[in-house]
Amino acid sequence: MTHPYPAFLRALAAFTATMALLASSQPDPQPVLSVVDKLAIPDLDARLEALVPDDPEPFFLLGEEVADEADSPDGLRLARHLYIVAYEIEREQHRGRPLAPSICLALRRIERVEDARAWLSAIAGALDPRYAARDWSIPADDQPDWRTALKAAEMLGLVRAGEGLRALPLRDDPQVVALLERYGSNLGPTGLTRIDTMIRRWPCPECHNERSVRRPTDRGNQTRLCNTCLGNPGPELSPAELRAHLLLESRLLKGARRSWSAQTALDDAAPLLDPDPDALAPQLAVRYDLDPSLRYWRGGRWVAAPDQPQSESHDSPPPVP
Length: 321
Ligand SMILES: [Zn+2]
Prior knowledge:
Blueprint: H1 6-25, H2 33-38, H3 44-50, H4 56-69, H5 73-93, H6 99-109, H7 114-127, H8 146-160, H9 164-172, H10 174-183, H11 191-201, E1 212-217, E2 220-225, H12 239-252, H13 260-267, H14 280-288, E3 296-298, E4 301-303
Antiparallel strand pairs: 1-2, 3-4
Helix pairs in contact: 4-5, 5-6, 5-14, 6-7, 8-9, 8-10, 8-12, 9-11, 12-13
The protein binds zinc ion.
């Protein structure tokens, strides 16, 4: 006996396939929706929609929850948006409240780029001096003795210059050793070992950092460029290594990048991030293509007004200030 509805089932299958094809060929109209579904936070969509931008705290706290759960770029993007909106509300309405530096540090926790992390810490420090030293990996109440810090910084400079013999006594100073063991992690995973290698290897074994070598010949003494260091003694540091050195030095000497040459070396002529609290939202908006003026969550995305039709909603970046 034949099935009574084979033609109907075939038509239904064709219809379903066509619809699936149509759906797959359409751009996802609300890509942000998926992040809410991906994050294991109960009622996240409803909680986002319930946020009213007259109190920064719920934005901040929900941002913390999202940041804890987020393991994808769009999750982090949602956390950042919540933080930045919280920051802006705080700045606009509650300038005396202490939430703003906490938001900076929260943003720092989900920031991967070291310079941006330092910048966020600098803003936190500008807002509240208690946070001023946090990013320098040296607690504010635990600054190293300045003489020891100076010695450590001098030692780093000598190491970079290939002056291993002069660097060695400083490296062996027990106080400097203690300081570097404590804060040398700023130099990266191979930091101290690498410094010791550089100290052992330099000065140049051939020219002793004279850059040239004199050799007696039949026609008298001749001077030639050193074959070992090619006239340029000292370890070859990668840009990342040099940055790490200068950052640690800067931190040891209490942070402010006062020398323009150190600044140039650190940033490699990149635009400076201004540690101005008022610049945080505009700079992060550009950096992450976020619009902090969109403060209502409607239909799976941020919009500017609570009753804004979803068709007019957008999440485009603001004009570059
Ligand atoms: Zn040499």
